[in-house]
Amino acid sequence: MRDHLEGIILAAGESRRMGYPKPLLKIGERTFIEQIAETMLAVVPRLVIVVGAHRDRVRAAIPNDARIAIVENPNYARGQLSSLKIGLGALQPDAAGALVHLGDHPLVKAETFRAVADSYNQTGKQIVIARHNGHRGHPVIFDRAVFRELETAPEEEGARHVVNADPTRVVYVDRNDPGINLDLDTPSDLTRAGLPLPPTG
Length: 201
Fold this sequence. Notes:
Blueprint: E1 5-11, E2 26-27, E3 30-31, H1 32-41, E4 47-51, H2 55-61, E5 68-72, H3 80-89, E6 97-102, H4 110-123, E7 127-132, E8 135-143, H5 147-152, H6 160-163, E9 170-174, H7 187-192
Parallel strand pairs: 1-4, 1-6, 4-5, 7-9
Antiparallel strand pairs: 2-3, 6-8, 7-8
């Protein structure tokens, strides 16, 4: 069944520029990882969260939910695609595709996740990407038909290698949602977004 999607959150990065594990930053009273997991579980029945750097601290912040599987990327320093490959390998065999999001993009609206999933079901495209103001971002859906390409793609190029290989199989979902491409890499990025700074000490 095509609409049986599972989710993947990539939360293995080192957060060097932030100086604090980004999945543990706060939005209101919740951590980024809590916020993103809850939002995605409203759209998918199962979620895989990939941890790496800061794995113990991030793991401890992940909600205790039977729908969430946590997997570790020991090679997280090789980049985001290395974590995506680990996540794809942890999906259930009957998952038609993966709804992929980043552990440092907490401001994406719930309606955006739903719109991307709806587009995947309605268009039959193998890759569905959220876009805001002409700039593509996250979430992204990859159909199982492209998993093998992702697993063999050069890690230095990332998933864009697969996205750019054949534009005819890609559809963009335009949303009035700045969270789609809001990068939160430094404390000053948090300030601009109206979010609290990392704890000190």
